[in-house]
Design brief:
The chain is mostly helical. The chain is 83% helix and 0% strand.
Length: 309
């Protein structure tokens, strides 16, 4: 039972479930209703969509696994006793990593053939490679590692839009405004996911600064200090608030309802609370609570997909 718990921690099952829910919302709440309203069929039927979700899970899981392989020593300082590699065994985890990558690639090859999208097959090894590079080289550099993970999180919903781009072109012919609404909604959520993830990654780096410093990792808080990191966090909070409000000010139709204004108001209030706690965070426990709060905030942001569609 303990090994199963370690395995679940290794692959970050809750995080993988968030990936699944995100793509389900993009597909079933954003794209499918748009297709149905103009009597067209999506590029991804439900089975192909399921395959794409599994591929995304394989990529994400590979990133979590290689991160734990790389961070075994770091975690013994920052989070003693939490790294599952030390319990499951490095050899087992390495085999699991290889099988995850291979299984995902074979499935991506099948999907690429079926969709006649072989020119995009490079995205799978590139994604796996970037996540591995993050763990081995980018994670300990100021901001570039944070930006890499943030971009990947934004790409999780974005990959559905990439797969459906030709279908949206067909929708645009019949209903240009509808196609524009779909793209706008997807863009806003991707931007929100990018900024909120960037903020959380920065907070995690502040939390881990002591251990990172002892291991000569040059994260932003290690190199520039907590005060500068706090100021950067304020900037990201402000940018996230701007991203949430901008569509209202630009008068995008899907944002012009009392319900959406209320929901965005809730997100802004929560963001204001996060900013308050950033200002008053003092020790490792405070920063850890903020990191957990930001994970919940990202989940709250999924409502943008559920309610704007």
């Amino acid at each position: 039972m303990r090994d199963m718990a370690r395995f679940i921690r290794l692959i970050r099952l809750p995080n993988l479930l968030v990936v699944v829910v995100t793509q389900l919302l993009v597909y079933y709440r954003l794209f499918l209703p748009a297709y149905r309203s103009v009597d067209l069929q999506p590029v991804l039927d439900p089975f192909r969509f399921f395959q794409l979700v599994v591929i995304t899970i394989a990529i994400s899981a590979s990133g979590f696994i290689i991160n734990d392989l790389r961070d075994a020593k770091v975690d013994e300082i920052n989070r003693p006793g939490t790294n599952p590699v030390l319990v499951l065994g490095r050899a087992f985890v390495q085999w699991l990593y290889a099988l995850t990558i291979l299984g995902g690639f074979l499935l991506s090859l099948i999907v690429a053939f079926r969709l006649d999208e072989l020119s995009f097959l490079w995205l799978y090894p590139a994604s796996v490679g970037v996540l591995a590079l993050y763990s081995w080289a980018l994670k300990g550099r100021p901001l570039i590692g944070n930006l890499t993970i943030s971009a990947y999180c934004a790409a999780v919903p974005g990959i559905i839009g990439l797969a459906e781009r030709t279908g949206l072109a067909r929708i645009s012919i019949r209903n240009p405004e509808l196609a524009l609404t779909v793209w706008r909604t997807l863009f806003i959520f991707m931007l929100f996911a990018f900024l909120a993830t960037f903020l959380r990654e920065l907070i995690k780096d502040i939390e881990d600064a002591e251990g990172d410093r002892r291991l000569n990792l040059r994260t932003f808080p290690v190199r520039f200090g907590t005060a500068a990191s706090r100021r950067l966090a304020y900037l990201i909070v402000a940018l996230t608030a701007t991203a949430l409000c901008l569509p209202i000010f630009l008068n995008w139709p899907s944002y012009q309802s009392v319900f959406i204004w209320t929901y965005i108001g809730i997100l802004l209030f929560a963001l204001l609370a996060i900013g308050f706690f950033i200002a008053h965070a003092d020790d490792k426990k405070d920063w850890h609570r903020l990191s957990t709060a930001l994970k919940l905030y990202l989940l709250l942001g999924l409502g943008l997909l559920a309610k704007l569609a």
